[in-house]
């Protein structure tokens, strides 16, 4: 068993540039900031999310609030139009306490650079996405790579895309994030599945690290490594808030979902 | 219903044609397709590729199609044995 491919846990707000470098080159599977929100804060936010009647259907049988660029690769206008509406909904949900500010602040402090949500001309990218994975749902093996897949969007020109996910409500059982120690390559497209993601053959023999969905934890991963979420089981939905971020040629950080 | 195949665009041959490695074929298809086919596209939803063939460049086609996982809705086979298709990016590789 590999002993090197384990997540780095950051508990202070010091500069952690080395950790980000390790995540970018793939020598660690994740950076975890434990408990950036406490149990009560997560509970209050989850309750608000579950009661607001603003969810839409995401991939499979998941529900979401906010937009995912991956669903609009051939429909840029629609993405920005929907993002404008969903950004307003997210503002309303997070009107009293905005967990995105906490996420951005932790990333900014550790990375040592300012971070803000991306814009393209006068359009705003989606300011995050809340995903509700109901019991029985899972996320198949995939990778995220705006540079390759979303070449019509300006975020495709950012470097070092990383993914940030805040766990607001844990599944009773399951719902674990698995990171495979294998970067996507162009030649892997032969393993694509028509509807979503990749065949299991793409991660054959790759070392796998599982990260539990602990309430309040902020988890950063390198999304160009294959990852998946196993089936959510029990009574509760797995609820997360996430976005991607990358840096421009001046090393300023920009986020989107 | 048109036959549908999926695969990775390998070589760009012209401003309207490319070679594809076929990895998936719809179960209900009327025909069986080879592992390698040449596609001539009549329509595409890929935003970086202009509708008017005269306005296209090979670079645009390469950026939009090369190594990408593509869905091809087949309308016919030409005399040169090319598949005449409507072409789009298929599904999402990311979440």
What can you see in these coordinates?
The complex is a heterodimer of chains A (257) and B (95). With 257 residues, chain A is α+β, with helices and mostly antiparallel strands. Chain A has a single domain (8-256), classed as q2cbj1_9rhob like domain (Jelly Rolls). In chain A, 22% of the residues lie in helices and 30% in strands. Chain A is built from 5 helices and 18 strands. Chain A has helices at residues 17-25, 39-51, 76-93, 99-111, 146-149, and strands at residues 8-9, 30-33, 56-57, 63-65, 115-117, 119-120, 123-124, 129-133, 139-142, 159-169, 173-174, 177-183, 208-211, 218-221, 225-229, 232-233, 238-247, 253-256. In chain A, the strands form 4 sheets. In chain A, strands 1, 2, 3, 4, 5, 8, 10, 14, 17 and 18 form a 10-stranded mixed sheet that branches. Chain A has a 4-stranded antiparallel sheet with strand order 9-15-12-13, with no helix packed on it. A two-stranded antiparallel ribbon of chain A has the order 6-7. The longest helix of chain A has 18 residues, at 76-93. With 95 residues, chain B is mainly beta. Chain B has a single domain (3-89), classed as OB fold (Dihydrolipoamide Acetyltransferase, E2P) (Beta Barrel), CATH 2.40.50. Chain B is 8% helix and 46% strand. Chain B contains 1 helix and 5 strands; from the N terminus they run βββαββ. Chain B has a 5-stranded mixed barrel with strand order 1-2-3-5-4. The radius of gyration of chain B is 12 Å and the shape is globular. In chain B, 31% of the residues are buried. The model of chain B has no long low-confidence stretch (mean pLDDT 93). Chain A binds chain B through residues 59, 68, 70-71, 73-76, 139, 142-146, 149, 151-152, 184, 186-187, 189-190, 192-198, 223, and chain B through 6-8, 21, 23-24, 45-48, 63-64, 67-69, 71, 88-95.
Secondary structure category of chain B: mainly beta
> How much helical structure, as a percent, in the residues of chain A?
10-25%
Counting DSSP H or I runs of 4 or more residues, the number of helices of chain B is 1
Supply Rg of chain A: 17 Å
Strand count, sense and closure of the main sheet of chain B? 5 strands, mixed, barrel
First-to-last CA distance of chain B: 29 Å
**Per DSSP, what share of the residues of chain A sits in E-state strands of 2 or more residues?**
25-35%
User: How helical, in percent, are the residues of chain B?
Assistant: under 10%
User: Which CATH class of chain B is shown?
Assistant: Mainly Beta
């Amino acid at each position: 068993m590999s002993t090197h491919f384990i997540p780095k846990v950051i508990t202070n707000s010091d500069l952690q540039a080395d950790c980000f470098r390790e995540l970018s080159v793939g020598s660690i599977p994740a950076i975890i900031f434990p408990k950036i929100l406490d149990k009560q804060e997560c509970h209050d936010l989850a309750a608000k999310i579950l009661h607001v009647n603003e969810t839409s259907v995401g991939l499979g049988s998941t529900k979401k609030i906010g937009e995912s660029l991956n669903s609009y690769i051939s429909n840029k206008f629609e993405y920005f139009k929907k993002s404008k509406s969903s950004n307003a909904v997210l503002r309303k949900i997070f009107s009293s306490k905005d967990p995105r500010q906490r996420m951005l602040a932790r990333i900014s402090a550790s990375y040592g650079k300012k971070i803000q949500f991306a814009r393209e001309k006068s359009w705003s990218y989606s300011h995050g996405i809340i995903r509700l994975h109901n019991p029985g749902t899972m996320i198949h093996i995939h990778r995220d790579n705006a540079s390759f897949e979303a070449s019509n969007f300006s975020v495709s020109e950012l470097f070092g895309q990383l993914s940030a996910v805040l766990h607001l409500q844990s599944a009773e059982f399951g719902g674990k994030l698995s990171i495979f120690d294998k970067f996507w390559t162009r030649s892997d497209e032969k393993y694509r599945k028509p509807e979503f993601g990749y065949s299991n053959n793409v991660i054959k023999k790759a070392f796998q690290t599982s990260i539990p969905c602990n309430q309040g934890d902020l988890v950063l991963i390198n999304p160009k490594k294959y990852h998946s979420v196993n089936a959510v089981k029990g009574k509760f939905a797995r609820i997360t808030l996430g976005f991607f971020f990358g840096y421009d040629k001046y090393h300023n950080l920009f986020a989107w979902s | 219903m048109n036959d549908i195949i999926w695969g990775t665009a390998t070589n760009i041959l012209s401003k309207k044609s490319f070679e594809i490695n076929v990895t998936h074929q719809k179960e209900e298809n009327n025909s069986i397709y080879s592992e390698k086919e040449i596609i001539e596209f009549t329509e595409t939803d890929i935003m970086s590729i202009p509708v008017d063939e005269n306005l296209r460049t090979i670079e645009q086609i390469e950026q939009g199609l090369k190594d990408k996982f593509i869905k091809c809705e087949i309308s016919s086979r030409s005399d040169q044995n090319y598949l005449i298709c409507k072409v789009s990016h298929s599904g999402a590789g990311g979440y």
